[in-house]
Structure formats: C-alpha cells, structure tokens
Amino acid sequence: xxxxxxxxxxxxxxxxxxxxxxxxxxxxxxxxxxxxxxxxxxxxxxxxxxxxxxxxxxxxxxxxxxxxxxxxxxxxxxxxxxxxxxxxxxxxxxxxxxxxxxxxxxxxxxxxxxxxxxxxxxxxxxxxxxxxxxxxxxxxxxxxxxxxxxxxxxxxxxxxxxxxxxxxxxxxxxxxxxxxxxxxxxxxxxxxxxxxxxxxxxxxxxxxxxxxxxxxxxxxxxxxxxxxxxxxxxxxxxxxxxxxxxxxxxxxxxxxxxxxxxxxxxxxxxxxxxxxxxxxxxxxxxxxxxxxxxxxxxxxxxxxxxxxx
Length: 309
Hints:
It is a single chain. The protein has 2 domains: 2-158 and 257-297, D-Maltodextrin-Binding Protein, domain 2; 160-245, Periplasmic binding protein-like II (D-Maltodextrin-Binding Protein, domain 2, 3-Layer(aba) Sandwich), CATH 3.40.190. The protein contains 10 helices and 12 strands. The chain is globular. It is an alpha/beta fold.
C-alpha cells in the first residue's frame, strides 16, 4: 500500500508539472503580449542532469563536461528571423529558439549561463567546426550533400514550409513560370531555400543573399521571385504590399529544423535528444511554438504542429 501511494504521488507530481509548464507559457504571453513568451517550466530532476549521470572511467571528455565546468552554454544563432530568433526593442535576444535555449541552459545544471553568439548565417557552421560554439540553434535542416556529413543533427524541434514571394504586380500565375532564362530568384545564402531554388528553377538565375535583402529584392521588383519560409513570408508581405505570396495554398515542401552539434560527441548529442524528448513530452515546445511563431502564420494553411519524435 505504501509503495502504491508513492507511485501515485509521483504521477501526480509529473502531471502537475506538465500542466504548470503549458500554463506558464500561455500566461506569460497574456500578461505581456509585447514581450517574448516566457515559460516557467520546472527544472529537470537531478538524476536526469549531467552532473549526476554515471561515467565510465575510460569515457572520453564530452562537451557536456566542458559546458558544466566553464558554466556557459555557447549557442550560435542569427538573430534576424523574427519571431523565431531576433533582437527585441531593447536589443535583447528574443524568440522561440531563444526561449528554448534559456531552458536548455537551466536544465544543464545550476549556474550554467546562456551565451548566445549572434553571427551571420553563413558563419554559423564554421564557428561550430572551429569549436567556438557548442550548438547551432537556427533551425538547420540536416540534408545530405554537405551538412549531414559535416555535423550531427538532433531530433527536429521546429517545422518549416517553403513558399515563393513575387512582386505584387507580377504577371506570373504559376510557380513553373519562374523557371526560365532571364528570371532572377533570391534565397538566403547557404540555406535549404537556396538548395530548393536551385532544384526547382534550374533555368533561372539564383541570387543568394542575407534574408532581409533577399526579400527586399523581390518587393522592389529587382528579382522575379524568392523562396522563403512561410512564417517569414506572411508578415513580410503584410508589411510590404509590393510583394505577395504566389503559392500560399501549396507550399513546396515540409522540412524540419534541428540543432547541429559537432560530429563524434555522442554524449552531447544523446543529452540534447533526450532533453528534446523530455520537454516535448511535457508540451513545452508546442506551447512555445503556438504562442510565438503561430500568430505570424496568420491564416496561411501551413503545417503548424511540432513534429512527433
């Protein structure tokens, strides 16, 4: 009977933690809609944190050990993709990825602080390979042909769908019309969108730029089209009526962004994946996505659910 009561108590505690986590995310947005959503998730149980994990005597040193000994989690980001990651009005990092990284740092152990290293998108992978950051949090898609062979990728944490924006007065009625000589298509440098553009529009000229310039080239009429994630395209065309989404009903593809970590560090990858499973199971990722990214999609019929694991 005593053991049964203990088990019941544990179930009640875990259930209440899940409810408190989701409620905390929603309440934060209701209290301060102009600010970034905050979550009040309970810390990981001590037995789940790296400081308490058993270690073989011959186990190699992992970034887990380095992060805890130095007391910082170094994360590479590009704070230019509102609402996923950006700087708020006071210049502080904000957004979906930022809130998740704050929680990850707290879960790595007492005293571990988050060190966001804001870099241009094309500088993130070199920074990881050079050991300057412990993790890239920018929703990278682990595609083969370069990335997958260079880094290890976590389980997904954010969904994307790609759309095409065109000038508002463009006569183009079908995406296929952009695949022609003399057409100019823009995309973020080194991104999944750029790879998609090269495959879909092989006859057109692909111009890779930083994200905002790539979008503005289309809005100004200097480019015939641009491929971009729907959550960025919807607010952009609302603020820039000289551009429109050509295919809102039929996005090109569903992709899932993941964290990137250095190859070979199995302990670090397994901890990150275990952390994602734990927090997904609590409903934290879905609550944050709905509160922070969801509103930017408006009524665009895109995939909004955090993928199952």
